[in-house]
Request: fold
Amino acid sequence: MIKANDPSLKSWIEVPPDSDFPIQNLPFGIFKTQSSSSRVGIAIGDQVLDMSILNKLGFLDDFKIDDSIFTNQYLNDFIELGKPLCRSIRQRVSNLLNVNNPELRDNKNAQYKVLNYMSNVQMQLPVKIGDYTDFYSDIERNIAAKVHTSSKAGISFRKHLPLGYNGRASSIVVSGTSFHRPKGQIKPFGSDLPVFDSTKQLDFGLEVAFIVGKQTPLGKTVSTATAEDHIFGLTLLNGWSAHDFHTPEDIQPGLFLSKRFITTISPWIVTLDALEPFRTQGCVQDPKVLPYLEYSGEKNIDINLEVSIQPENSDEHLISKSNCKNMYWTIEQQLAHLTSNGCNINIGDLIASRTICAQNTDSFGSMLELSLKEMKAIKLKDGSERKFINDNDTVIIRGYCEKNGVRIGFGEAKGKVLEALNS
Amino acid sequence: MIKANDPSLKSWIEVPPDSDFPIQNLPFGIFKTQSSSSRVGIAIGDQVLDMSILNKLGFLDDFKIDDSIFTNQYLNDFIELGKPLCRSIRQRVSNLLNVNNPELRDNKNAQYKVLNYMSNVQMQLPVKIGDYTDFYSDIERNIAAKVHTSSKAGISFRKHLPLGYNGRASSIVVSGTSFHRPKGQIKPFGSDLPVFDSTKQLDFGLEVAFIVGKQTPLGKTVSTATAEDHIFGLTLLNGWSAHDFHTPEDIQPGLFLSKRFITTISPWIVTLDALEPFRTQGCVQDPKVLPYLEYSGEKNIDINLEVSIQPENSDEHLISKSNCKNMYWTIEQQLAHLTSNGCNINIGDLIASRTICAQNTDSFGSMLELSLKEMKAIKLKDGSERKFINDNDTVIIRGYCEKNGVRIGFGEAKGKVLEALNS
Reply:
């Protein structure tokens, strides 16, 4: 049997060459249609495979999966089946979609029932998220270091351990969710007294996040070597922030109200299996890390990232290209660190790596980084300028891996900013 | 009908005068017995009323509650019935337990089925906690200000807004749960290089927390005037910490691994209704707060708090007495602030107020505060000394209100520290 991520695989479903979802990807998500409730889906080309109907029609009979696993508001119950079973099911779907397999290819009636065009479905939040943790994984992000830490000490400590904080799970939403510009306490320049007003410094935050796929009990640590068993897959994440809310909060531990008003994630969870061919050598970690953070092998992932702004009634404007292969800490190290104090993890926990920026000037993970680096506003195609995100702007994050003619994409994490409410 | 918190009420169940659970309290919790699965209970004296059986026997027929609400692992579904209905059910239980009501008083057979001695039940985590937020509500806690903030700015900003951070929900456990001394990166004195070792500065953190009882959608704010509608009740909370993990993390936003390894809460949720008679005038807030934080009426709560340490095979030693009536920010202000940026809240969210310490020297909310204030270790009854918490120590937090001969107690938030694991 050919592995589900083999570059030679072809599907009988036509997949455009620039599609994020070739047969090698097969990411999981939750969708509904006008006539159906929430259910588990797999993306293939510009279509979504309905796993619930696939199961009902008997194509997954070997696995004896209760339909409630697939007719579900979240992927958590599916993920709880365990990685070996989830992997086998994904492999079975790969076989069913394979150009050489007539089972579904030659059964038009079944195809009609199990496939939906993406344009006809509404993607949902894929997992019920328990806890959300946000890491700073990029040592070189010196701008952030300057802003948030007493810089030299900050850089030095970052090389001993991944720095993170607890985020807010309730306000994590799926791509496509609009939100009103948030309000908060802002200290006007030159004044000692704060005012309560809508943010004037709304920003995006380019991040990649992974979903915990296997729980641990309290007191149990996870090693870097076994971390992969606890990671189901990855999504894109926009960690929106209101920088001017920082002012009074800089002094407190935790990015609090300036961050927790909304967080946008992409709807498809790309499995670690699909990403395996894009693993790459990580950074040289100097000074040497403590034993619980040591690891071997190629553990970074070569994912191209792009951020675009689309003003109302205007074209998209690509404002940043980046890549997460330069992350200082691997996702396995993040999980080992997170659990090093015995903190338990649950299926559906979301662990993100904060804004990634490479060395070249067109690569940055937030408007703030760009402003500080370029010392000027960005000029968009429509002639307008941006230092931060305007009302009615849509920010779109995209990500994809590419190698040997195979493109494994994440889809989009997209969010539109509406004007502040008057209340 | 006499209100359920009326001091004149008496139950036909004998309640010892120093009990936390007279008929005026009737807090909610989740318990199981050797022969039964998890279910909703109400504490009365030294007994627990089984709400599931009470419902099955027809005593709650007027409310037409599905039994799955009471035969449940968590209180969330019960809370979701809404405050008016929960209040009516609690009032009905008050009537059933009233000395003048023969319904249950004279029905020995039903009593036998619905009542369990506390010593025979095992209390569970009462709610499925979504997000956990921790506030610093005490302006005067200058020791903490010195540790965590650039002190003067810290104190000044604290008077404009409640400072908080996101905690970890997964590691919140019910009273009685033991845990192993956690490990983390510690920077030995005089060294630039961290080591990975068990904490030598394990501390408790005296806190009171409230449980969100009504959700809001994303973008919706909650005013101080309506906050009470969103608060189901209060519990005690021990926010354990490992101070020596702070060293490398001080520079990062958020108390992270130093705090998230475990958090202990008491099993009974005392309703706001039961606490109503103990509302008291809050602090004078100067400077004047912004309009969204303004409130009227007596909104602090006069709750006596006590912390004891019980070494292995030794007597309890009371080490601190405190009170939460001196909190600078009311719980209603905390909720208004938390939602001021449009962040949504869910039933079961836990919002805590960090360590409370009054002015007198025997009042402090952590060993660190005591050490810094007293400049010496505490001597326990058994002759041993403590600067921090030792292995095999049990820390017990208790809380109660008292007025007009009525004592409304919270029970205990108790946790025992086991030696660090070798793994």
